[in-house]
Specification:
The chain has about 350 residues and is of the alpha+beta class. The protein contains eight helices and ten strands. Helix content is about 50%, strand content about 15%. A four-stranded antiparallel sheet has the order 3-2-5-6, with no helix packed on it. Helix 5 packs antiparallel against helix 6.
Length: about 350
């Protein structure tokens, strides 16, 4: 074998081992159960766990929680989670500590069925979590009609779906509990007052309310144009005096027509005898002018009489009508009349 080929063999072997470890780590990013972990995974998890314990001794809380979470991402050990819960508690992150204690109790109780050593882990986590209750406020949330992908936030903190059935740690005082949809929209919310050592119930319904019934369209009616002088239907009885007045004017017009018509006829008869062949002497000019005036007044009386009587009769009929009507007296140049409908 060529000397250069032999020198590359150790390098290729180390590369293959590194690639295998990377694949194994990526495949178990969520953490395998302790009984299913390989020797390499256990060694990797133990390395992070030891680093986390050393950081706790130095009260380097950020590094401690980071290393312990890295250990849990490789092997999901209830013992490592119990240490993480204690680190969060001692660093003042009581809400996160409460959540980790709860996960520790669940994991340890499940594994204790086959491995007795985890029973003590569950007991310790339960006791230590109970000590935190007097220093924490809680809300217990019930969500009805939650759509797929719904989210729950308590005091702005997103609560994982698997923890909705558990008490959720909240700051004391006013707390906003919000249910949202998968797209980030808000479905419903409620604000409650949380107290230390208490579990405040919150019931929410994520079903949107039914749409309001449609508002019926209101048909607009265009009012009829106002007449120059009008009388509403309720005041039709007030038209009767006008009927009498206008009718009286008509009668007076007819009387004027009769009187001046007779005078005009008398004057015409006198002039016929004095004016042969319709030619009157100058001495009769005064009588001719008088006859023309009498004729004009008689014609005017006839017109006034006809219009007055007709209008008066119309007004009288309207005043006696029981049907609704819209009426109006119209006075125009050269015209006097009544506009309306019975």
């Amino acid at each position: 074998m060529h000397p250069q080929a032999r020198s590359l063999r150790p390098l290729l072997a180390r590369c293959a081992l590194s690639a295998a470890l990377l694949v194994s780590s990526a495949a178990t990013a969520s953490g395998v159960a302790p009984g299913d972990a390989t020797a390499a995974q256990k060694a990797d998890a133990m390395g992070h766990f030891t680093a986390g314990k050393e950081a706790i001794a130095q009260q380097s809380w950020e590094k401690a929680t980071s290393e312990l979470r890295a250990s849990l991402e490789v092997v999901n050990s209830p013992n490592a989670r119990l240490v993480l819960a204690r680190a969060l508690r001692d660093s003042g992150q009581t809400a996160d500590a409460w959540a980790e204690y709860g996960r520790t109790v669940d994991d340890a109780t499940r594994l204790a069925a086959t491995e007795d050593r985890y029973a003590k882990t569950a007991e310790a986590a339960t006791a230590e979590r109970a000590e935190l209750e007097s220093n924490l406020a809680f809300v217990t949330v019930t969500v009805a009609h939650a759509p797929p992908g719904a989210t729950l936030k308590v005091a702005g903190r997103l609560v994982p779906a698997e923890e909705w059935t558990r008490p959720v740690v909240a700051p004391p005082g006013a707390v906003d509990v919000v249910v949202g949809d998968a797209g980030g929209g808000e479905l419903t919310r409620q604000t409650v007052s949380a107290s230390l050592g208490q579990k405040t119930p919150v019931a929410l319904d994520a079903q949107p309310p039914p749409p309001p019934p449609p508002v019926p369209a209101i048909e607009s009616t265009k009012p009829e144009p106002a007449l120059p002088v009008g009388a509403p239907a309720s005041d039709r009885s007030k038209l009767r005096p006008y009927a009498y007045v206008v009718g009286g004017i008509g009668v007076a017009g007819f009387a004027l027509f009769t009187v001046f018509g007779l005078m005009d006829n008398a004057t015409y008869s006198d002039l016929q005898g004095a004016c042969p062949h319709n030619v009157c002497p100058p001495s009769k000019q005064t009588e001719v002018d008088s006859g023309r005036t009498q004729q004009t007044v008689a014609n005017a009386g006839l017109i006034i009489g006809a219009v007055g009587v007709a209008t008066g009769a119309t007004l009288l009929a309207l005043s006696l009508s029981s049907r609704s009507s819209t009426t109006g007296l119209i006075v125009l140049p050269g015209y006097l009349g009544w506009r309306g409908s019975l």
